[in-house]
Design brief:
0% strand; TATA box-binding protein-associated factor RNA polymerase I subunit A isoform X3; SL1/TIF-IB_Component
Length: 397
């Protein structure tokens, strides 16, 4: 067999059936792989120096990959498998990961490769070097996701999630966290899809209740996976965003909503910026958050940024559904006196928001602005100027 790709692609003949080979469901087989698996499993060692051959072969493979010459790369790959028999134990141990990286890329792009060929290769490589099991499982799942095979990817991640070998090392722990993260993200995608389906149903429709329950079940599964993950140190922004968006739909007052707002604020997409404003209003709709100074600071700052960005309509959209009850809920004379007495910094932030949303005639705004405080005098003056410039009651005045 002169070419690696021929061994991957060609059909199984009667003569081939007599060989010990790795067989896929399509009749494709891998005698080259079985041969070297057997060598590793039986502990066979050959005292030969393959250094020059394997090094030259690796260079040829890399050159072929750079030029997208997939059949040529496959041919060189066939010769590279001898590294599994290298007398140097370090090279032998590192070989499975190198073979996986090179082989998976070749099979991903090879014109005659297919899904079953790739899956068979991945499954064999997972078990060839147990230390690479989690890494290969994760990459295999991403390959399946790329091809739209969500259920297969989820099963793959579930198996990897429960896999253990010896004592759990720090590197294994990181990979397990990643496996759980992507599983949670996959569940988040399913939840989003169910949520979209639910929005197209009539609430009086019998199917609505069933779909609603299904969506809640998915949200619970997702929050379990991602909720545990974000307790682990690391940069998990995409996963956190998925987690808190689910929480926002279920419990908008959750403390993670402010973190969600920060993530949305960093985004370059306008719809994320709009959602960031919605999240802040949603947090302050709840009685338990009325004295959350961080939320009021964020809202005061974000209202000004939004209005300076010529998005008055965003603010009006959020305010229209609240203007009948927020004034008494947040901005009454009673709350102005109480807030000023208990937390002057909070009172100042709320006064700015009140002035922007209700104008200079707002009782809360007027009470705070009348206070003569030596330390806060300049801040109150800035609040007046900001309200004059940004109030949505008389914009531009």
């Amino acid at each position: 067999m002169s070419d690696f790709s021929e061994e991957l692609i060609r059909s199984k003949t009667e003569d081939d059936q007599e060989e010990s080979c790795v067989l896929s469901g399509t009749g494709m087989y891998f005698p080259w792989l079985q041969k070297h698996i057997d060598t590793v499993e039986t502990g066979g060692k050959k005292e030969k120096d393959f250094a020059q051959t394997t090094s030259a072969c690796l260079n040829r493979i890399q050159e072929a990959l750079l030029k997208h010459q997939w059949p040529q790369a496959a041919g060189y790959m066939h010769s590279y498998f001898q590294i599994l028999e290298d007398s140097d134990s370090h090279k032998r141990q590192a070989a499975p990961e190198i073979i996986w990286k090179l082989g998976s890329e070749i099979l991903f792009y090879h014109p005659k490769s297919n899904m079953e060929t790739f899956n068979t290769f991945a499954d064999r490589m997972k078990n060839m070097g147990v230390m690479n099991y989690l890494k290969i499982s994760l990459q295999h799942a991403l390959y399946l996701l790329h091809h739209g095979m969500l259920e297969d990817a989820n099963r793959n991640l579930s198996r990897a999630e429960t896999w253990r070998y010896g004592e759990k090392s720090s590197s294994q722990e990181v990979l397990i966290n990643l496996v759980q993260a992507y599983k949670g993200l996959l569940q988040y995608y399913t939840w989003s899809k169910k949520k979209m389906e639910l929005s197209n149903l009539d609430e009086d429709d019998y199917a609505y209740n069933t779909a609603s329950q299904t969506m809640l079940n998915h949200s619970w599964k997702t929050s379990v996976n991602l909720g545990a993950l974000i307790q682990t140190p690391g940069v998990w922004d995409p996963f956190v965003k998925s987690y808190v968006e689910i929480l926002y739909q279920i419990v908008p007052s959750h403390k993670l909503m402010l973190e969600f707002h920060r993530l949305l604020r960093k985004s370059e997409k306008k719809d994320h910026h709009k959602l960031g404003l919605e999240v802040l209003f949603g947090v302050l709709d709840f009685a338990g958050c009325t004295k959350n100074i961080t939320a009021w600071k964020y809202l005061a700052k974000y209202l000004r940024q939004t209005l300076m960005g010529n998005h008055l309509a965003w603010v009006q959209e959020e305010w229209n559904s609240r203007k009948t009850w927020w004034p008494s809920f947040h901005f009454s004379s009673f709350w102005a006196k109480s807030d000023w007495k208990e937390d002057k910094a909070l009172a100042c932030e709320k006064a700015l928001v009140a002035g922007i949303l209700l104008g200079k005639g707002c009782r809360y705004f007027r009470y705070i602005c009348k206070q003569d405080h030596p330390v806060l005098r300049k801040k109150i003056r800035r609040i007046r100027k900001s309200v004059k410039k940004h109030s949505i009651v008389n914009p531009g005045l």
